[in-house]
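Supplementary Methods, section 5.1.

A reviewer requested that the exact input to the structure prediction be made available. We therefore reproduce it here, unchanged from the version used in the analyses.
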Amino acid sequence: MHSFSRLVIVLLLSVALPAVAAESLDGGGPLAAKADKPRKGKGKGEATPEATPPPPPPDADGDGIPDGSDRCPQEAEDRDGNADEDGCLDADDDGDGVPDVSDACPKQAENVDGWDDADGCPESAPKIKPFLIEAELMDGTKLKGRVIRILAVDEDKPDAAPGEPADFDVIVDETAEFKTGWENLKAMKSEKVVFTDAVDCYSEGVEELGDSTTWECTLKHPVVVTLKSSEKKGVHRVLDREMRRLDWKIELADCAGPSCAPVQESRTLPLYLYKLVASEKNDDESKAVAALQGRLRELQKRQIKTAMLSPVD
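The structure derived from this sequence is encoded token-by-token as follows.
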């Protein structure tokens, strides 16, 4: 009897268990129902999913200024401290008309005064009052213009900055000396000299071991001046014992003759009002002297023969 009962139970289980498994696999039955039952709310401590941020506004040139606010959406702002919020490249920060790429002072506006106006840097006020000049040079060049600055260059000190003298020295009859301003100058005339008598060449020796000998030649170039006023009587000449080159910065109004091109290009009339000076390093004395004398002759051609000076109205 017991054996029969066990046999019945085994048979029943063998039929029931496959059926339950089949229902689970088909998605039905109590197991599937429990698995499909929706959850009621979140568990404690469960994170809330973050919202996806909106895309950034379009910025075609990538300069950080949205296209909607960018005056130059296809050209990136240069971030130079000048109008950096408009989104445009600032080609001339100081507004002086000299592009930043060529401006030696891009944050300082050029003061257009006729002297180095293309460098973009403001210059200090000239030490002289501008004056008009009408002159003939030794080579026959005739010019008219306005002198706006006078720079004094010491050619023995090439590294020294040019000076800007407000006056010059005058010697009267080789005895009395005094200073006067350029505004007191009325006329100038170079005295005639015989080149061979007026030239003087000498050696300055060797400055450093291994250097060639330095040779210097000077050429007397006495300039008689007429002043608007002077307490002295006699012939007035310019005196400059330092023998500096005086660069007259000039705006030409008219020019005719062989020296016009260099004067127009440099806007400078280089003058020696006492002695012309030239120097060269060379161990061969004859070659050095010949070369220097040739340079002095060329310099002499561009010196003032006669000039009349007047104030600017």
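The chain has two domains: 67-123, 131-311. These observations are discussed further in the main text.
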